[in-house]
């Protein structure tokens, strides 16, 4: 393993990579239940989508570890599953087998773009300040997700968002956040993983020993739902390839292509910048192979019965634990596989247990923002827009779009045409098309 994954070269070891893999898995494992809960609203069987989700997570993350050798897990993307269900199937009345076909064809487009290095050229077209801003924006975004999962930040009609009530669950989250922060600050090996386990244990008494209103039913965060559940392969190869090529479905394919492409690109760029996972040219390490894996994940998702797969920003949890090689992704992948049969066990780890880890990853992700020259306003303004619109719009893609477009506009108006490359202009065209079709 040392020679294959080049552990010494990247200053890591097997123990560190294993702990990192476990941490990334725990931060990502929610998708095993959340993805089928969303796609089942499109009329797909919950158990079959769960099986498909596990298959996508396992095979795609394994490929990322063994082929691309990056410490990044791959799973069905949040946002993409919502688009699949609420926009394509329920909104546009596209039957779910046709929507699965659209997922497959978008994966084929990904493969072609990756095989001919087009996606790699797009990455190279992203200006450095925007790369740093994307990394910081993803950090803010993932922290917002963590606070939201813990119900510490909630929707508020008067102020859009606000602080939630200090319920027993929120207090437990804050205790877990403090413990995890102390462990990370003191550089305790496996501090994030220990924090997840601590918060899980602390959450067990809620609804059992305390936090129950007089006369009310116990509301437990951790509920034992058994161990075993048989896998359901009924969605395997149920996609409709021919009807998904109809002209009416083309916008769906394009939306999958554009959103998944920029989600994966921005995740790879953001994690690479934040963790210094760069090659000798300053580009994300093994970027072409990583993008190929992402493309295969989407194609595989259409075949087995899921929304598109993409690189996961929660991989930052394992990277913050010290994961630097593909061994981290391999460990995470192997942990997904047993849940083909053991899905009920996931109920043991509540959302508030992984929330502290997800929040603290924001600290790690925003570091590159210091590299932006904030005095050069024609670069600072697009970087700022990209950074804040990712969490404010709850969309990585929207942050990327407005970062690109504002960069191009300001550079051209300022007479700095040399800073606007042809690949960047091509990306701008795709950004405009995406806004029109939205």
Would you give an account of this structure?
- This protein is mainly alpha-helical.
- 61% of the residues lie in helices and 3% in strands.
- It has 18 helices and 4 strands.
- It has helices spanning 2-5, 14-28, 31-39, 46-68, 80-89, 96-115, 118-125, 128-149, 168-185, 191-203, 250-275, 287-304, 315-320, 326-336, 351-365, 377-392, 396-413, 422-437, and strands at 74-76, 153-156, 160-163, 309-311.
- The chain has a two-stranded antiparallel ribbon.
- Strand 2 (153-156) and strand 3 (160-163) form a beta hairpin.
- Helix 4 packs antiparallel against helix 14, helix 6 packs across helix 11 and helix 16 (377-392) runs antiparallel to helix 17.
Q: What radius of gyration results from the CA coordinates?
A: 21 Å
Helical element count? 18
Uncertain stretches = 213-218
Instruction: Say how many strands there are.
Output: 4
Give the CA-based shape.
globular
Beta percentage is: under 5%
Helical proportion? 55-70%
Q: Could you give the distance between the termini? A: 46 Å
Structural class: mainly alpha
Side-by-side strand order of the widest sheet: 1-4
Mean of residue pLDDT? 84
Largest sheet, in brief, is: 2 strands, antiparallel
Order of helices and strands: HHHHEHHHHEEHHHHEHHHHHH
Can you give keywords for this protein?
two-stranded antiparallel sheet; mainly alpha; 18 helices; 61% helix; single chain; 438 residues
